[in-house]
Amino acid sequence: MFPKCRSNKSTVEILSLSNVRPQDRYSLVVEYKFKKSMKEIQTKKYEKSDFAKCEKCFLIKKSYCICSELDCVRYNLLNLEIYPIIEILMVMDHREIFKSSNTGKIINLIIPNCQTFIYGLKEDMLRLFDIIEKNKNDMLLLFPERNSKTFLEVMDEIFYNRMNFNKFEGELEYKSISSLLKYSRIFIIILDGTWSQAKNMNKNIPRYIPRVRITSKDISDFGPLRKQTKIGNISTIETVSLFLNDMKSFLLKFEDKSGNIENIDTISKLLLKCLDILIRNVLSQCKREYLSEVLMNRNERKFLKNIDGNI
């Protein structure tokens, strides 16, 4: 979960960078902006504002919070075991955290094996790089750069080179891999931000970690919420869903009949269901905020109650 302000009475001091080393400035700016945004959210909460946001899903708590629906999905996911075990490391740009339309927070709220790190926060980055160092041989980064590989290509290399499996007519030997996949663990780093933000974060992730691209060419359903700056861009939650589809394709090579593939498929579909929930509520919330602002600016407060009741 995300860090919280210690008290509603806490104040955000004016940031001074005059005596700060250049390499430390970005971290301080991120920390300052994070605390400032959290302070604004908690101020609305203690003022009992109609527009106070939920501190988990960051939608307006009074009418559009989706946490109860997400809790139901999380409960269903707790009963679904898949292998190899997937650990998600969500590296999130600080400008994305408080956006209602951000989908990375959905993954953080429903996937049990998910940890979130705010890019630039010193403590978070130290914790992230510690996990990377301890598990560097089991680490993948989802990012479609020029030399990136598909999940299938990377997994073949892992099992050929590191686990010393034998080839059989150009394929991995089924009996060997099926028995050991259950004990495998893969850490997936996901960069949550705009395309330019993700490119910047990618530069600071160790280069020895394989970059993996999604093979699907599906068009994003995220259009109603965000204007994409690059053709083919998809939301973070869609990325995870499609990654699971690629993982399923890898397992189909071995004719897995244990129910594992069905579980992976179910998780992928539940993620897209959560995206639909988010889109529906964000669009409703934006409509309410826009109309309310227009009416307030026109001094037509007497109509506000009626409009709110019809949205």
**Beta-strand segment tally:** 8
Sum up the overall morphology in one term.
Answer: globular
Main beta-sheet strand count, sense and barrel state:
6 strands, parallel
Q: Note the quaternary state here.
A: single chain
Provide the spatial order of strands within the biggest beta sheet. Answer: 2-1-7-3-8-4
* Radius of gyration over all CA atoms, rounded: 22 Å
Q: What percent of residues are in strands?
A: 5-15%
Short description, anyone?
This protein is α/β, with parallel strands linked by helices. It has helices spanning 22-46, 67-78, 104-110, 122-134, 151-162, 174-180, 195-203, 236-252, 260-297, 304-309; strands spanning 85-93, 114-119, 139-142, 149-150, 167-168, 171-172, 185-192, 211-213. Strand 1 (85-93), helix 3 (104-110) and strand 2 form a beta-alpha-beta unit.
Structure description:
Residues 4-12, 165-170 and 294-311 have low confidence and may be disordered. Strand 5 (167-168) and strand 6 (171-172) form a beta hairpin. The radius of gyration is 22 Å and the shape is globular. The protein is α/β, with parallel strands linked by helices. The protein has a domain at 66-281. It has ten helices and eight strands. The strands form two sheets. A six-stranded parallel sheet has the order 2-1-7-3-8-4, sandwiched between helices. A two-stranded antiparallel sheet has the order 5-6.
